[in-house]
Amino acid sequence: MTHDEKQLDEHRSIEIISKMIADTSAHIDSESGKHFLLWGYTTVIVSLFEYVAQVCHLPMPLCLWAWFLIPAVGGIGTIILNRCSTTSRPKSYVDRSISAVWMVFGLSFGMVFIAAIVYHASILFLTALLMGMATVITGKICRHKVLAWAGKAGVILSLAFPLFHLWIRENGAALRDSCGDCFEAVVYSEIIIFAVIFIIMMVIPGHILHNRSKHLKNA
Amino acid sequence: MLKPLDPLLHSELRLAIVSILIGVEEADFVYIRTETGATAGNLSVQIDKLQKAGYIEVEKGFRGKMPRTVCRITHSGREAFAQYVETLKEYLKM
User: Fold this and answer.
1) Class for the domain spanning B12-88
2) Residue A5: what pLDDT?
3) A26 interfacial to chain B (CB closer than 8 Å)
4) How, if at all, do strands B27-28 and B66-73 pair?
5) Range of the domain at A187
6) Chains A and B: how many Cβ contacts under 8 Å?
7) Which one in A20, A99, B7, B57 has a CA-CA gap of 20 to 30 Å to A153?
8) Distance (Å, whole) CA A110 – CA A8
9) What residues in A contact B46, CB-CB < 8 Å?
10) CA distances (Å), B53 to each of A80, B42, B66, B73, in order?
11) Which chain A positions have a beta carbon within 8 Å of B38's beta carbon?
12) For residue range A155-181, what is the model confidence (pLDDT) as tens digits?
């Protein structure tokens, strides 16, 4: 008797429907953490390198070009992650929505990046704000509270940049007198703020999601 | 008088296939086979029946160099599933 010919009663039908829907939902969730870890760690590592490079006065073109490692490593890593996915995971409407959100925010970031250069606006502030917003939306779509809260934290913490600039403007002269050589290290510490925001916004929820997916796979 | 359950869906494997596809945009053959635990031959036959009934659409392509068959539920498949669940509820109320 084949699988197809087995007699079904109503209760067994309900059992099959519930099981298949529940199992498929579990698989939809399973890989979300990897992308956040990739982008989060890339941003944190490049930011820390940038901070050291700026404070140690490394050659300017090298410092500036290093920022482009974030989209380069993140973009290539995302392609590799998607291709190397060993499980044939089903594609859901949630996947499509999340892809659309990040594509729109990615494009917006490109526009904002150009505008920020032209208008001399703070790229770090705008990046943290935009990525925070995209993380909140992703968290809401996936119904991951941790991700949504991490994104909200990112949006709120992005306010640290204008506040930091205000503080430097108010206390710059006094700081220069008291700190002397270490004044530049204080000024460039906004890059450290940027790295901390990405740890809170992407690295920590990325690990939580990744551990959860490992737990689900082992269950 | 209770309506009869759609015979095309009232089969363990075909119901499992449609239940998987109802919650996703698309799922590939390997995934459906793993989830249902069916043999490749039996699964192909049942997918073919659902496709002929217009409940699902099947797209054959490649992922890299590996062949890949992707299944999606159609509008009439979705309606048939909803009707099946409604009829099932009636049976369970008895």
Assistant:
1) mainly alpha
2) 54
3) no
4) antiparallel
5) 25-83+93-218
6) 89
7) A99
8) 55
9) 4
10) 38, 17, 28, 11
11) 3
12) 999 999 999 999 988 887 887 887 777
